[in-house]
Amino acid sequence: MSTGPGADSAPAPAAHDSTPPAPKQSMFSSLKIHNYRLFFTGQVISNTGTWMQRIAQDWLVLTLTGSSAAVGVTTALQFLPMLLFGLYGGVLVDRLPKRPLLLFTQSAMGLTGLALAALTLTGHVQVWHVYVTAFVLGLVTVVDNPARQTFVSEMVGPRQLANAVSLNSANFQSARLVGPAVAAVLISAVGSGYAFLINGLSFAAPIAGLLMMRMGDLHKAPRAPRGKGQLREGLRYVAGRPDLIWPIVLVGFIGTFGFNFPIWLSAFADKVFDGGPGMYGTLNTLIAAGSLAGALLAARRGAGRLRLLVAAAAAFGVLEIVAAFAPSVWIFAVLMVLTGMFGLTVNVTANSYVQMATEPQMRGRVMALFMMVFTGGTPLGAPLLGWITDEYGARTGFAVGGAISLLAALAVGLILARVGGLKVKLDLRRGHKHIRFVPDEKRLAPAA
């Protein structure tokens, strides 16, 4: 399979070809950069609040309705704006300065948390309030996601980009270890409202970090001028790059069908293992522990490769299928750690690969497309898998999501192999690698 943008059928842009390979880095090398250190610190605080709100929101909806499908609708509404407007968000990000844009989006996200806190703490919250808040948060995320993704390269520069992307994921997963546990305690003790309040206040940290940055240290990328056809230009750019489009397609399938953990874990905690919010928070924490390990390993590994992306996606699908039929909560818990590790490996590898392979002036639109298919597919997948989970049980719903993820990984792996002039070779002899990719002499011969 193609291992980079230099494949014959998908030549990389000159800007990418001219960048020398990054030297091996320490796990935390990008934290030596002042601006990124401020950004990282602010994000770990707000991410902790975000995870608290996510757990409290899912459990509040389940309590108000008793329906896993309703949890899926909430998740779908939060990600529907990304599906509808994600590409337009990328156009805005390529045109506008990132730091002022992030000051606006982070402030708006904090206000959504405070609004939901006020409704819950006063006892007036209804499920439609949660739906509306989730949708508004999704609208802000349309711009916030690609802005945060591309601002990382402006803070650290190209040589530290892969490391910083991995540390961003480690940051998010570290917060995921703390947030669900704190949320579970708060929900059990005083209800969901205080989790929403803490989340709203937590956005003061990233706002302060953005205001304290040294503007002269930023590696400012060229901004796209205003003009017609910029959305189509971004789509044509990706369509002409098989090494970009197929990893994005794979991430889309994984995000749509494989990352519906709010639906499955709430159903397993409530109906399969007869637990409560404490068990739901614990299961989320275990996934986060595996994800954190995957992020730290990615930080040491550096730039992502397509072989690793496909292998991790296949392993992720297999683990979900196996976990769906785990006979005990202890086995299920161990499998959640491994599932988190491989799921995060898919996300980080695809993210860093796509950013490194994209020209700077196109990065906002490409990353908007990346985030659109990764999170924007949730409005399609979440209600469907929520319905399957309600009708046929949590185990069936989880297994279906894993099976689709596995099939997508196998299909995209074969397509990328064909793009790169490779074919699958089976060797069943003992002591030999049974499945490997080798050059396809028939396809390469006409080019010789």
Short description:
With 448 residues, the protein is mainly alpha-helical. 75% of the residues lie in helices and 2% in strands. The protein has helices at 14-17, 34-65, 68-95, 98-121, 127-156, 161-190, 193-202, 204-211, 230-239, 242-258, 261-272, 277-301, 306-324, 329-356, 363-375, 378-392, 394-419, 441-444; strands at residues 422-426, 435-439.
Count the E strands.
2
Tally of individual helices:
18
Q: Main sheet, how many strands, which sense, barrel?
A: 2 strands, antiparallel
Q: Which stretches are low in confidence, meaning pLDDT under 50 for 5 or more residues running?
A: 1-23, 443-448
Helix content: over 70%
Average of pLDDT: 80
What proportion strand? Answer: under 5%
- The computed structural class is mainly alpha
Shape: globular
Radius of gyration: 22 Å
SSE string, helix = H, strand = E? HHHHHHHHHHHHHHHHHEEH
Strand order of the largest sheet: 1-2
Region (Disordered): 1-25
Subcellular location: Cell membrane
Biased composition (Low complexity): 1-19
Keywords: Cell membrane, Membrane, Transmembrane, Transmembrane helix, Transport
Write the topology of this structure:
Blueprint: H1 14-17, H2 34-65, H3 68-95, H4 98-121, H5 127-156, H6 161-190, H7 193-202, H8 204-211, H9 230-239, H10 242-258, H11 261-272, H12 277-301, H13 306-324, H14 329-356, H15 363-375, H16 378-392, H17 394-419, E1 422-426, E2 435-439, H18 441-444
Antiparallel strand pairs: 1-2
